Fold this protein.
Amino acid sequence: MPRIFSPEEISEVVEMLLFQDLDIRSVTLSLNLQDCISATESVITSCIEEKVGLYSKRLTEAVNNVSEKYGIKIVTKRIAVTPISIIVEPIARKSFEEACSTAINIAKSLDRIAISSQIDYIGGYAAFVHKGFTQGDRVVIETLPRVLATTQTVAAMVNAASTATGINVDAVIDVSRKIVETAYSTPKGTGCARFTVMANAPEDNPFIPGAYHGLGEPEATINVAVSGPGVIEATINKLGDNVDMRTLHDTIKRAAFKITRLGELIGREVAKELGIQFGIVDLSLAPSPKIGDSVARILEAMGLEYAGAPGSLAALYILTDAVKKGGTMATSSIGGLSGAFIPVSEDWGMSRAAEVGAITIDRLEAMMMVCNTGIDMVAIPGDVPVETIAAIILDVMAAAIALDKTLGVRIIPVPGAKAGDKVDFGGLLGSTVVMDIPRFNCRKFVERKGLIPPSIKRLDKG
Amino acid sequence: MDKGSEELVVISVIGADRPGIVAGITTVLAKHNVNIVDIAQTVVRGIFSMIMIVDLSTGNISLSKLREELSMKGRELGVEVSVNHIDVFKAMQRV
């Protein structure tokens, strides 16, 4: 009888799992909460407690069962809910203050459920303001600092730009103020790690803080985020220095195929256990602060001294393109961000590259052209003016709509810190050096306010 | 090839070579009536490596309990034991 698998095939997978940190970064349950909309706070909170409470217990159970069955580590369990701005609209119509208090109570309630059911994060404290504000949107933005300071697991997102509508500069300014306020109301500004401002936020993103349950989604669905930078790094190291670019690309593509297949297997099984629809696999390789789990190290394995060195865009392009091509062969359920992540503090190699000056704001802005990270987990001095933060966000939003892609900004002003200081956010958030920010004045530009019109790409839709 | 009733699991053992590794691992399997479908073993430069495909359907132990017992045995023997459902390998190694 022929062997089912050759020993080499089995060893390859076992090595990936044991020594190259291949795991499932997150299983995210995306859950509709529109049935909890009410003009009475107690009705909303009891509905959320019942529904999210039930689903979160079942999610934890299903994830544990599947992890046990397959022998695969699932690092985090998350829930993404309908944007809270929509949930509070009826109360916001009556009173803005009352709606703010309700929104905070909803967030606290979600936080309690998450903690008691061992859910790592709950995403969806979100507002979509890329063309303007509703009262519910204003409530979410107003309460961001309070929510991020008083909860541990709630993640927030504001979508401030889209290719179809342009950039809401007013929203970017408001959000920048809230980023600073959040920084000063949480230790080391860590609350900002649970907030992102995005352009073209996808409805099925399994990653925090951008995850929310989109309006086009079914009642409940499972979205999966894979890890596996270590697998790609090890694969490239095995190739050695003397292979050409095409072979490099092909080898990454093959490894990405295997990683994605594992994500799909686990996602489908968790969905089956829960009796709900399987949603998507996000092809992005999520890094972590562990040395062997770094996207920057992949670029370095390709032959760069540090991520950020000249050649980094080309290297990152090879990686992102190969991951997309390998991943798309592996699953027909593609979604989320599906690119490459280079969050500075959360990626061991990115953090080291920032320390030696190879990674700067300018390099990140360049690298986001060929991935979908934007400016992510970047610590900046606590005294950077609000208008400078707003201008940095505007730059990222502009790149996103010009290139018709998803990008985000997760920036952390660290109170009292100067450029060059080291800051440790703890756990998966990692540690990093506080980055220098250009101090050239941009206030007059930002304070023009209003909307930047959509790009010419909008006319392609007509 | 696969019979519907089979519940195939891949056991992989790796570590410094020493007497008794195969005996230690297979004793656990025999104790629970778990059938070995395929086995391959090598020693390269003192590193012992063994891969087994076993069928749990003949046995009286669950996958998670078997993993627990084998990991414990692995610690005794000073080797790393990994136990994964065969579907992981089907997903990753077959188009």
Notes: Chain A has two domains: 31-199, 223-461.
